[in-house]
Amino acid sequence: MKAWLKNLFGGSKPEDPTPLGEIRRSFDRASSDEEHFPSTIDPRIYHVQLLLEYFGDQASGCILDNGCGKGRFARVLHERHPQANIVAFDLSEAMLHYVPEGIRPCSGTMTHLPFASDSFDCVYATESLEHAVAIDIAVAEMCRVLKPGGRLVIIDKNAEHWGRFKTPQWEKWFRREELEKLLRRDCKDVSSRFISYWDDVEPDGLFVAWLAQK
Ligand SMILES: C[S@@+](CC[C@H](N)C(=O)[O-])C[C@H]1O[C@@H](n2cnc3c(N)ncnc32)[C@H](O)[C@@H]1O
Fold first, then answer.
1. pTM to 2 decimals?
2. What's the confidence (pLDDT) of residue 17?
3. Which CATH number applies to 3-213?
4. Residue 68 C-alpha to ligand 1 middle, in angstroms?
5. What pLDDT was estimated at residue 89?
6. Residues in contact with ligand 1 (CB, 6 Å cut-off)
């Protein structure tokens, strides 16, 4: 029997057939893998240092960690700026269980952020935009919720290195100019640079940081 006929006449209904459901379930499962999805990060790692440097004093305001996973970056920001109002946002509620106290966990999809426009001083997405599928919408959403003058950082992987790892079929890596173009729709002072984990190690081109101000 054809699948649609089977469903119409009471065949077993899939749990959630959308790509979003598949992505959520995959990260729910991955949350128990502390080795590959750690809940902490060494604050000396340049990815963290870049956020702290670029956000500066604005990091003591309202911050959105978009696609936060277990909130390892938010944890450092919270330690450095205890007065900051930090939201840890992720598709996977299982990931959010690891977010430390003092940071507000919130679940949903970054393609439809449940926040008012112009509400965050700082927004960042580290290795999460690559899973958003509707990339242009996700970037527009981050810009929408950023306050005028607010700062945005995206850290993700370079499309020119695609194939270096095995990746899920929905994952996408980016060319520098591709995300710069999307960010320029709503932000000024848009730039990008190659980064590595340690600031004394020459970047090998895998990781790119995009910076922008609204
Ligand atoms: C590779 S992990 C990175 C987590 C975190 N940013 C970090 O660096 O530790 C990617 C995260 O993006 C989340 N994610 C995937 N698609 C998402 C979406 N559409 N909206 C919000 N979060 C999403 C996943 O649940 C996962 O926790």
1. 0.92
2. 56
3. 3.40.50.150
4. 6
5. 98
6. 23, 27, 67-69, 72, 90-92, 95, 109-111, 126-128, 131-132
